[in-house]
Specification:
EC 3.1.2.2; single chain; hydrolase; 7 helices; Acyl-coenzyme A thioesterase 11; HOTDOG_ACOT; HotDog_dom_sf; Thiol Ester Dehydrase, Chain A
């Protein structure tokens, strides 16, 4: 929490001066500011998370509708982690803007901050990404116009939105697979003396959807449904600990179907498992009208803590699951906790805070791949690259940030972009144009987009040892014409491939290629590399020598691409 006056002012002027001198404001940005009144608060005098979710959903929906020009509905919400609580009398500031639009859906970024009017303290509460879908009009399905990013931040969010969408679309299937594999390894549930029966925490409640609960399209607000779900989840959590819990995390969830005025919404919650300092509550929302059948609207998993007087998490009582379904929920909660921690550790960290080599396994593959590609996209979106030198149509740029030196090498080739992508994607052939790649072997072909290689490089000094690297290569084709082809590289660790005495284990923080199609025959290739001195074979204290090394390597790269422009490239087959 920051109490520096003006630091991160949530009501700062949204106008931005572009390099051209033009005054710019994002046309989709919507703001909401609310003073927290007692009617918005819980028993502790803190803003109810349910009320906050309603405000967030309303603000995001207005942003989506401003861009779409038509009614929109909430389709999904990514993980939300609540960093701080908000007290009565404080001001909640919510900003929402459309990061990217696809065919009929769009991602809306939401930032929630809080300010204390008396002390001028300001702090971030949470960040979220919601997906909204434009509803059909009388003319048929809506075709959304593209978002045009104008600032560096907007370009970065626009680019990464495609990667978040990719993860969103495969999330449910991957989570199901991970739960199946992880729960099979957990064995039987542990028995704890004095454990609380899970059935004691079961809650069921019904709500009648009235006009105040619906939007201007007579559909129930997604935020209102989330608020009702948070209410029953809080009751379930309270029954376990006999105290007032604090909601910390809501896992990514999707709305399975709409709800309308007149619906009876049945909300069910139960504590699935309790760990030392946190508990997972599963909650489900179903709807019906009259004597009709129940319709599944939404399911979510919420993580609660109980704080002591010093705001530290208390130790929680253990849960005793009921047979069959209770034990299944108990074991799946253990697996989800591991997945959740992996996801938070890899995705939530700033790029400069993620450790160089993260252990890879099948449970965190999706998140490491996301982090790998996002790190490259963030580096590519930087606008403050400095041209260091240029030779034979190969340009070398440098950028220093957080005491880390970054490089960009830019060149053009008369090879179709897709062919250049396929040729550069196969690291097994990189030794044909890059003398720093002495040997490259496939270790794991995780899927068609992600491959783990072991790369060996020659020694750079007489009598020294060569380096080897365990690299995750993540490939991405363009989502649309405004995206490049991408090949992202970063170090990972594998227990099956520890460091050996013959090589010094090297590390790659972030590297890779961005390949842009400028015409049918001309392609712009940008190579990026972020590393600390001594980490990569390219890096040396001699900038002139470094420039010479890059020029030599990328002239060879251009020649390799030109010679193989018509060749067939076959990527490694999957061994899964």
């Amino acid at each position: 929490m920051s109490c520096e006056k003006g630091d991160g002012d949530p009501m700062e002027d949204p106008l931005f001066i572009l390099e051209s001198g033009e005054v710019y404001r994002n046309p989709t940005e919507v703001k909401m500011s609310q003073i927290v009144m007692p009617c918005h608060a819980n028993h502790c005098g803190e803003l109810s998370v349910g009320q906050l979710l309603k405000w967030m959903d309303s603000t995001a929906c207005l942003s989506a509708e401003r861009h779409a020009g038509s009614p929109c509905i909430t389709a999904s919400v990514d993980d939300i982690h609540f960093e701080h609580t908000i007290g009565v009398g404080q001001v909640v500031n919510i900003k929402a803007k459309v990061n990217r639009a696809f065919t009929s859906s769009m991602e809306v970024g939401i930032t929630v901050s809080c300010e204390d009017l008396f002390s001028s303290c300001q702090w971030n509460v949470c960040n979220a990404f919601a997906t909204f879908v434009a509803r059909r009009t009388e003319e048929g399905k809506v075709q959304l116009k593209q978002v045009i990013p104008r600032t560096q931040t907007e370009q970065m969010e626009y680019s990464i939105a495609a990667e978040r969408r990719r993860m969103r679309l495969t999330h449910a299937e991957i989570i199901t697979d991970l739960l199946s594999s992880n729960t099979a390894q957990l064995g039987e549930c542990q028995e704890y003396q004095g454990a609380v029966s899970a059935e004691r925490t079961r809650v069921e409640s019904v709500e009648l959807v009235l006009p105040p609960h619906a939007n201007h399209q007579v559909s129930t607000f997604g935020g209102q449904i989330m608020a009702w779900m948070e209410n029953v989840a809080t009751i379930a959590a309270s029954r376990l600990c006999n105290a007032h819990p604090t909601l910390r995390t809501i896992d990514m969830f999707h709305f399975r179907g709409p709800s309308h005025i007149g619906d009876r919404l049945v909300l069910k919650a139960i504590v699935n498992n309790a760990f030392k300092h946190s508990m997972e509550v599963g909650v489900c929302a179903e709807a019906y009208q009259g004597a009709g059948a129940l319709r599944h609207i939404n399911s979510a998993f919420m993580t609660f803590e109980v704080l002591d007087k010093d705001r530290k998490p208390r130790t929680l009582p253990r849960i005793r699951p009921e047979p069959v379904d209770g034990k299944r929920r108990y074991q799946e909660a253990v697996a989800r906790k591991k997945i959740r921690l992996d996801r938070k550790y890899i995705i939530s960290c700033k790029q400069t805070e993620v450790p160089l080599s993260v252990p890879w396994d099948i449970s965190n593959q999706m998140y490491l791949s996301y982090n790998n590609v996002s790190a490259l996209k963030i580096m590519a979106a930087r606008s403050n690259w400095m041209l260091s030198s240029e030779k034979n149509k190969v340009s070398l740029y440098t950028l220093e940030e957080n005491q880390i030196l970054c490089f960009k090498v830019e060149t053009h080739v008369t090879v179709p972009a897709e062919q250049a992508f396929h040729l550069l994607s196969d690291l097994r052939r990189r030794h044909e144009w890059d003398r720093h790649y002495q040997q490259c072997d496939v270790i794991i072909q995780a899927d068609e987009d992600d491959t783990i290689y072991r790369v060996a490089t020659p020694c750079v000094s007489k009598g020294g040892k060569g380096q080897d690297f365990i690299l995750l290569a993540s490939r991405r084709k363009p989502c649309d014409s405004r995206d490049p082809y991408l090949i992202a590289l970063r170090s990972v660790t594998l227990p099956t491939h520890p460091a050996t005495e013959d090589y010094t284990r090297g590390e790659v923080l972030c590297a890779g290629f961005s390949i842009w199609e400028e015409s049918n025959a001309v392609t712009k290739i940008s190579y990026y590399n972020r590393a600390t001195p001594g980490v990569l074979p390219y890096i040396s204290n001699d900038i002139a020598g470094l420039s010479s090394s890059f020029y030599s390597t990328f002239h060879s790269c251009n020649k390799y691409l030109e010679e193989n422009r018509d060749s067939q490239t076959v990527l490694p087959p999957s061994d899964r």
